[in-house]
Design goal:
This protein has helices at residues 3-13, 24-27, 32-40, 44-61, 104-140, 142-156, 160-168, 176-186, 189-202, 206-213, 218-254, 266-273, 282-309. Helices cover 67% and strands 0% of the residues.
Amino acid sequence: MPETLKETSADASAPIAAVPAPTAEVAKARSLWTDAWYDLRRSPLFVVSAVLIIFLLVMAIFPGLFTGADPRYADLAHHYLQRPKWGHVFQADWFGYDIQGRSIYARVVYGARASITVAVVVTVLVTVLGTIVGMLAGYFGGWIDTLLSRVTDIFFGVPFILGAMVVLTSFEERHIWVVILALAFLGWTQIARVARGSVMTIKQADYVMAAKALGASTTRILLKHIMPNAIAPVIVVATIALGGYISAEATLSFLGIGLAEPTVSWGVDISSGQEQLRNAAYVLIIPSVMVSITVLAFIMLGDAVRNALDPKLR
């Protein structure tokens, strides 16, 4: 037998080296949400905004941890002519007193509850309503899409603050739930448009077509296949809009048609502080700064979530 054939025969009889099996970490594919969380944890923008929001939420839920003063207790011996005592950190006179002798620091702490509650509840309501309308319009199309889109356009054409003013002025008592429902009644249109566009893209995917071919019900397709994949842009828009609802509540309260006394909120304090702008500007500036910080925190969070969920930005 020639030498080359012997080498070939010897090589053929040699044992084949085993290919190492892929590790579990390599074999397991990461989902969109896993990748997004991986990116968010390494984003300074997300870390800073998350810390601020957690601090504000703790202050809104447990205001007693930050001050023992009563935000409604008025003592004319401590009126606004007594300037803030910047060295008395976390004490009642830290930010001074308003014209009625109420602690501005206590009102800032307790005012976070009403302002953040309005924003969070409104965001939840508009997200649910807008997502439902957008999903139905985008999935079914035809006359359903035409009808829901025209209704959305009608609401979208109403200026948000002006429409809220018109709605709120029709109520004699404007407590917190009236303000929430008025803002939610007008604020769902943007999320509906985003959800509709996302669903129209997702419903053409192969896995949706396969689910239809296998006889899956419409409800199952919407809830199990379309909504989990179309919800990402909705979450981004809702997170950014949450900060806008805080400023909207403050604006309406400043104009005197939002929340009112005895409710403690930043908007109410800004409204009452405008009367002392020349004599004691801090009465207006301090709650205004709190509104700005809160709105900025939620906008930063929304930007970080958008960067993590949008593959084009990675």
